[in-house]
Design brief:
Elements (H helix, E strand, L loop, with lengths): L7 H17 L3 H14 L4 H16 L6 H12 L6 H16 L3 H17 L3 H17 L3 H18 L2 H17 L3 H14 L5 H16 L3 H17 L3 H17 L3 H15 L5 H17 L3 H59 L4 H76 L6 H26 L2 H5 L4 H16 L2 E4 L12 H22 L3 E9 L2 E8 L12 H12 L3 E7 L2 E9 L7
Parallel strand pairs: 1-2
Antiparallel strand pairs: 2-3, 3-5, 4-5
Helix pairs in contact: 1-2, 1-3, 2-3, 3-4, 4-5, 5-6, 6-7, 7-8, 7-9, 8-9, 9-10, 9-11, 10-11, 11-12, 11-13, 12-13, 13-14, 13-15, 14-15, 15-16, 17-18, 17-22, 20-21, 21-22
Length: 614
């Protein structure tokens, strides 16, 4: 009847309803055919918006994820031209979810807020709860934990008003997870328990919540409660045949037993986990299994086995990390493409406006236009000439600085080479000749034990000197590849304390930003550290070294203070002090070395940014 009357709007509505019927029966191809028939009759109204939106849902249902956004974005464009309705609210919500899944969080939040305002108009509290939960998830992923808690609390309010039991359970768990991220462990435990009361016993989310609660208990040291919930999570996962949750539970309880030194229990669970852990799709499960196996073998002193699983762990970690990097790059490319599209639209809009201005101004006096054009050309040419001159000057300055930096590096390296050569000469020629004579003198010595003690002490001194030289020669990048830079510094300070008999005190933990700086910064700072320690050991007669550090105005500051005899202010600069100052210059920083009441203070600071010749 509608076709006979050429009622295109009514025909589109009826095709949409037929499509929805097949859509609900999961006969997606027939549903899509009817949606497209509707679009042939109406492609500009809100009904068309519904049709495009429904096609995007079909594309998602059949796994054609690359085809979702074109239909969804066309739908959004149509809905933006009309007053908001329920279909628009659902489209905005779907857009928010899809942008979130593609890590386009800014766009996702924009449409989620639009859907929230729409559902407020229609007082749809169930949908409002869903929107708030999704916004909370986005904020949680962005580590805006307080914002996430705000939206989860709003979701909780709507779910209480609609008595949505499962929604309450999920939201309580979301609040608990966020509280755990904020290290508010008491709150996390409270909300996990509330969530578990509302989640159905056959719900996989319940097993995950029990695992998270167990992990929180383990974090705060309540191992008995942690063990109970880990076991509960494992039992429920078995019942639900949820292999991934089951394996997570096993890894969790193994970590607990390893921490408690209950090695037999840990071994029992590791043996049970072994057949499955290396074949599951979730690589994090396998990664945790390798870590636990390595830790177990280490504790039972089977270092070969520990080394084997540590290698497996390292290789899998790199694989996961590389995959994550690829996903990040892909998402950045998507963002770049979207930005280009927006720029093209903006260019077209500006072009249209320019055309309108030309039409308005075409009757103006031609002479005035020409004069204006001449002025503009002159200004543009002048600016281009000025810009070119300034740029050439900046290039010249930059090149000069680069040459100076390279000369400083070369001079510093030559000094270090000479110093190492001198040290090796002193160690081999002087010390070993002395040791040889003392050993020969043992034959006629009346006090052999005393002579042996002296020789032992000399050997210890030679060993320490060789250790210092080896630290200068050993490439830092090899060490950084194996451990954090801050851990390398701590190890060197501990070694200095042990062999140099100088107590080392860190007033505050070393800045974690040191671990993320470039290798050239790490190399030069490590060289400064070695020179400071060498000067203290050889010249200061100190018994204590205090190291303080802080970050201010995007610069790192380090203060080394020893309680030795102090450096003389008018003393000639040695190679060590010269090396410290040159390395500071390479880091684009500064330093001061002075005698204070308690000994000698070495103050070094440099910017966090990469140096010019990095």
């Amino acid at each position: 009847m509608a076709l006979d009357n050429n009622s295109h709007a009514q025909v589109a509505i009826l095709y949409k309803k037929i499509g929805v019927y097949y859509h609900r029966k999961q006969q997606y191809s027939i549903a899509e055919i009817n949606y497209r028939r509707g679009l042939k009759r109406d492609s500009i109204s809100t009904v068309a918006g519904d049709l495009y939106f429904n096609i995007s849902l079909i594309k998602k249902a059949v796994g054609q994820n690359d085809s979702i956004m074109p239909y969804l974005e066309t739908s959004l464009g149509l809905f933006n031209n009309y007053e908001i309705n329920k279909g628009a609210c659902n489209a905005y919500l779907s857009a928010g979810i899809n942008y979130k899944e593609r890590q386009l969080y800014e766009k996702g939040i924009k449409y989620l807020i639009k859907s929230y305002k729409g559902f407020q108009i229609f007082n749809n509290k169930k949908k409002l709860a869903d929107v708030c939960s999704i916004i909370g998830n986005v904020q949680n992923h962005l580590k805006n934990y307080n914002q996430a808690l705000y939206y989860y609390q709003k979701a909780l309010k709507y779910q209480k008003e609609t008595n949505h039991i499962q929604g309450l359970g999920r939201t309580y768990v979301n609040i608990a997870n966020t509280s755990d991220n904020l290290k508010k462990y008491d709150s996390a435990i409270f909300y996990y328990k509330r969530g578990l009361k509302f989640l159905e016993s056959k719900n996989k989310s319940k097993a995950t919540a029990m695992y998270n609660l167990a992990d929180t208990y383990l974090t705060i040291g309540k191992t008995k409660l942690a063990e109970n919930y880990f076991k509960g999570s494992i039992r429920l996962s078995k019942t639900l045949t949820d292999t991934i949750s089951f394996l997570y539970g096993y890894n969790g309880i193994i970590s607990l037993y390893l921490k408690e030194e209950a090695l037999k229990k840990a071994e029992m669970y590791l043996d049970s986990l072994s057949p499955l852990a290396q074949s599951v799709s979730d690589k994090v499960v396998t990664l945790n299994y390798y870590e636990n196996q390595s830790e177990f073998y280490n504790k039972v002193k089977n270092y070969k086995g520990a080394y084997k699983y540590q290698l497996h762990y390292n290789n899998l970690y790199k694989e996961i990390y590389n995959k994550e990097q690829a996903e990040i790059i892909q998402n950045l490319e998507i963002q770049f493409d979207n930005t280009n599209k927006e720029n093209e639209i903006l260019k077209l809009t500006l072009a249209n406006k320019n055309n309108e201005l030309r039409l308005v101004e075409k009757n103006r006096d031609i002479e005035n236009k020409n004069r204006l054009l001449i002025i503009l050309v002159f200004v543009v040419v002048s600016l281009m000439v000025l810009y070119y001159a300034l740029r050439q000057k900046q290039k010249s300055i930059a090149q000069h600085l680069k040459i100076e930096k390279l000369e400083a590096i070369y001079n510093g390296q030559e000094i270090i080479k000479k110093r190492i050569a001198r040290d090796l000469h002193d160690i081999i020629t002087t010390n070993f000749d002395g040791l040889r004579l003392k050993i020969l003198a043992l034959k006629r010595s009346k006090h052999i034990n005393s002579s042996i003690d002296i020789i032992t002490k000399d050997i210890k001194n030679v060993n320490q000197q060789i250790r210092v030289v080896s630290h200068r020669l050993y490439p830092l990048e090899i060490q950084v590849g194996k451990q954090k830079f801050t851990d390398i510094i701590k190890s060197r300070l501990s070694e200095f304390q042990l062999y140099g008999n100088v107590y080392v005190e860190l007033e505050v933990p070393l800045p974690k930003e040191l671990d993320t700086t470039s290798l050239i910064i790490q190399n030069n700072f490590y060289g400064i550290l070695l020179e400071v320690l060498n000067n203290i050991e050889k010249h200061s007669h100190a018994t204590k070294l205090t190291l303080n550090s802080f970050i201010e105005n995007k610069r790192m500051h380090f203060i080394f203070l020893d309680n030795g005899i102090g450096i003389e202010q008018n003393s000639k600069e040695g190679i060590g002090i010269l090396n410290i100052k040159q390395r500071c210059e390479i880091l684009e920083g500064s330093c001061s070395i002075k005698k204070v009441e308690s000994g000698t203070e070495v103050y070094v600071n440099f910017p966090l940014k990469k140096p010019y010749n990095d």
